[in-house]
Amino acid sequence: MKAEESLKTTGAPNLDELRAAGMLPSVADFGNRGCVCIECIEEIPCNPCETSCPQGALTVGDPITNLPVIDRAKCTLCGLCIPACPGLAITIKSVQGDRARIRFPWEYLPLPVAGQEAEMVDRSGEVVCLGRILAIGNPPRNNRTAVVTAEFPEEFVEEVISIRRNHGKI
Amino acid sequence: MSDSRLAESARIEQHAILGKLEDTDEVTVYFEGAPLKARAGEPIMSALIAAGVRVFRYTKKGSPRRIFCGIGRCTDCVMMVDGIPGVRTCVTEVRDGMKVERQHGVGNWKAETEIADGH
Amino acid sequence: MGTEKKPAIVIGAGPAGLCAAIELKKAGAPVILMDENSKPGGQLFKQIHKFFGSREHKAGVRGFEIGKELLAESLSLGIDVRLKTEVVGIEKGLRVWAVEDRSRSYTIDAAALILATGATENALSFPGWTLPGVMTAGCAQTLINVHRVLPGKKVLMIGSGNVGVIVAYQLMQAGAEVVAVIEALPRLGGYGVHTAKVRRAGVPFRSATTIVRAEGAESVERAIVAKVDANFKLIPGTEEVLDVDTICLAVGLTPSIELSCLAGCEQIFVPELGGNMPLHDEYMRSSVESVYTVGDIAGVEEASTAMEEGRLAGIHAAWSMGCMDEAIMREKTEETMGRLLSLRQGVFGQKRFAAKKRIVEKGALR
């Protein structure tokens, strides 16, 4: 797998690179029940996503450098893969009407609080829209990787990847 | 030599992965005569940085220095400790009553006679 | 003179050394583990991120947790661990000269020696590099994750390899702001998932960019960076001032080979793995009888490869000391080599695999 331009110069993959690696879900995937998005486009030896899935919906196989493949029919959107990925590359997104939702990993303080307004960012950390934190979970099995659920306007569903990190503030 | 200190301590009290900073016994270290609180078991380096000390020593030509490798291999962090020059502060644990001073160049041993027995 | 009476001595209690000592002890071989620091674990306890690999590589487990597990295992096995112990000499017949707590020195005759002394971070010199506030990335990592102290508030990270990018992320977790990550090459070096994490926090990556100088009266107050061309020459007119108080250097590591040189090990120059390093064969044996080299000293890779190399040497040394059946040695060696191989695959791993292959081919010929 050859290294890609945006990822290897700006640090983040762009939508074309994700699409080329088969890692950009379609609009239909988002609207169905929602879907797992894995932004892992380089072949590195790594497979905790596969072992974390109780449904066997994620396959890496052998060699473990294979990119993960998602069987959407088996996926129940339980979200266990989100904190399992050491690269924090997995989110779950869905669209219902004019609102989108994202469940994403978070390892900074302060932890977001349910109900608070959120600045939704794209892969370059730019705020693209406002949203709202719906929930946050950090059970012991996550090993300190919290999973945050936020909702925001659906037209930004492809761009949004996280919320803004407050620089320099704990 | 005056030193500008950071307004607040640089200690990381809370951390998403490491949790709350555990309490330890407190020891008092004297930096250029002024008492500083340090955590028992930590190296001199982190006690000074937590207190906002920016310069650890000056070279013979007057260049300010602080730390570089942090694990005892480069000797950038050396200071006079209890009258002994050239002590690597990144791998030397604090001790209650310890006297830490900036050294100039390679430092000297003369100061040992000027230091009251603080042990 | 039975060699079973002499112990194996492992020098360096990081992941490679701990795993070597554990294999030896489990096989019933006498073993002493020495480390110059007051705490074992090498660089493991600074690693607060989740490791990659597979379940058998402890993927998903944070580095410091792996460190705790290894330590607990070594304690429960009752391994003789000697901390604050610096090895200052190695003579023929494998006589090791150790200085304990900078005050007491003694020698021990070893049946086997496993050198696991790791690597040292490289320096990058530029005008102002000696100012307080300039430090290696690992130094910043030690301060924030081990000592829980921030080195500064606004950081420039130089170097976009995994060390630079991971430490940039951890600096943000500690509450600092990373103003930029610069990289002299035209492409970033670290894993895409690591750089993506940092980028989504809003940190700019600047490839083909280098530092011109650091400025400040008594400590870093700003950094001047500029773009470079394909020959690393500064491009005039591209200078930019960054408001920072800390500059971290993540420009590679070099194996700490001093003890292997003292022991007389033949060295090989391998730029992809950090520079000069002792030659070794597929069992991690150096060119000197009964001396093994494992972990970063044998080529800078990762903690996971260090652990497997340590195991390889521990298993082989235990067998050579008569403490393990040949059949068991072969089985364990094959398993360990299989795990090691899977870590050296993929777009990042294959370069390391090729480099290690070159070393072992030369090492086996002697």
Number of domains of chain B: 1
The value of Rg of chain B in angstroms is 14 Å
Mean pLDDT of chain B: 87
**Stretches with pLDDT under 50, minimum 5 residues of chain B:** 1-7, 115-119
Q: Indicate the overall shape of chain B.
A: globular
Folded structure, characterized:
The complex is a heterotrimer of chains A (170), B (119) and C (366). Chain A has 170 residues and is of the alpha+beta class. Chain A has one domain. Chain A contains 5 helices and 9 strands; from the N terminus they run H-H-H-E-H-E-E-H-E-E-E-E-E-E. In chain A, the strands form 2 sheets. A 7-stranded antiparallel β-sheet of chain A has the order 1-4-5-8-7-6-9. In chain A, a hairpin with an 8-residue loop joins strand 7 (127-137) and strand 8. In chain B, 9% of the residues lie in helices and 25% in strands. With 119 residues, chain B is mainly beta. Chain B has one domain: 2Fe-2S iron-sulphur cluster binding domain, sarcosine oxidase, alpha subunit, N-terminal domain (Ubiquitin-like (UB roll)). The two termini of chain C are 27 Å apart. In chain C, the strands form 6 sheets. A 5-stranded parallel β-sheet of chain C has the order 3-2-1-7-20, with helices on one face. In chain C, strands 9-16-10-11-12 form a 5-stranded parallel β-sheet. In chain C, strands 4-5-6 form a 3-stranded antiparallel β-sheet, with no helix packed on it. Chain C contains 9 helices and 20 strands. Chain C has 2 domains: 8-120 and 253-365, 3-Layer(bba) Sandwich (FAD/NAD(P)-binding domain); 123-249, FAD/NAD(P)-binding domain (3-Layer(bba) Sandwich). In chain C, 60% of the residues are buried. The mean pLDDT of chain C is 95. In chain C, helix 3 (137-146) runs parallel beside helix 4 (162-173), helix 4 packs parallel to helix 5 and helix 7 (303-320) runs antiparallel to helix 8. Helix content of chain C is 32%, strand content 24%. Chains in contact: A-B, A-C, B-C. Chains A and C meet through helix 1 and helix 4 of A and helix 5 and helix 9 of C.
